[in-house]
Description:
The protein is an all-beta fold.
Amino acid sequence: MSVLIIFQIVTLLVTVRDPDEILTKHDKEPYVIQAERVTLDETESGRVSHLIGNVRITHGKIVITGDEGYAYERQQMAEVIKNVTIDDEGTIITARVARYYKEDRMVVLVDTVELLEGKQILKADSLVYYKGKKVSIAVGNVVLIDQEQNTEVTGDYGEYDFVNKTGFITNRPTLTLLEKDKKIVITGDTLRIRRKENFMSCSGNVIVREDSIQARAGYLEYYSDTERIYLKEDPVVEQEGKSFLTGLSIEVFLKKREIIKTVATNSARGMYYFSDKGMNDVMGDSITLYFKDGKTDRIVIVGNARGVYKKPREEEKKNE
Length: 320
């Protein structure tokens, strides 16, 4: 019998005579199912055991507990219902329902799923989790919180490897960089994470927002250890009615989740608006926009600097 059920009624625990009875030909990890009360039912698809009270499933180092469950002998699958908790060597997952597929070493969880691994928290409507490998596939209202790096990523679909600390989230993911009452929000088509390298990248229709400052690009790289963002593929940084910056690439400097300056290089062009609605249209090898308290402070051009001052339009003057 490839699945052993150990009946536990109050304090009585019955074990098998030969420990090898709880192993399969291809599985050398003990697989044990326990409950306070068990009823057996023979069905067309094989024997099904109804597990009632303090359900506990152990397969090697993973432990799954809950209030109730079912064990399907032929399918080598166990379902645990209500107050489900999974402990896989310190990785804790909670949900309302979990199905454990023994041969695949895989758990499928639904309904209020939350995974805790160190300082990282993953939430989703449903989750597929692979024992030992600690690889997760999350679907629906996905939220990945990193309490150490003060980041939060949301999206509709994501995959994350909690051993190698790598993953991605698709379907219009949103990355929020948090710092007390300050935040920077980054959106795009696909977000990739390499946490051990303090690196994230975002590709496709990238938008960065910090209060009234907005940046757009086709591709973004973010390094959390140096607080730098690199924008590529037609990057633009602007503050409406105040400043505009573009170039082949733009480097964004952050300080405590605030944009303090942006540097455009190669075919750099910038615009700076004055209080009288006049504008400086400038070009150069490198252009730096400085920001202070969320507002454009000044613009600096380095190398082959040239520019044109444009007076305010007469219509704008009349409306003042």
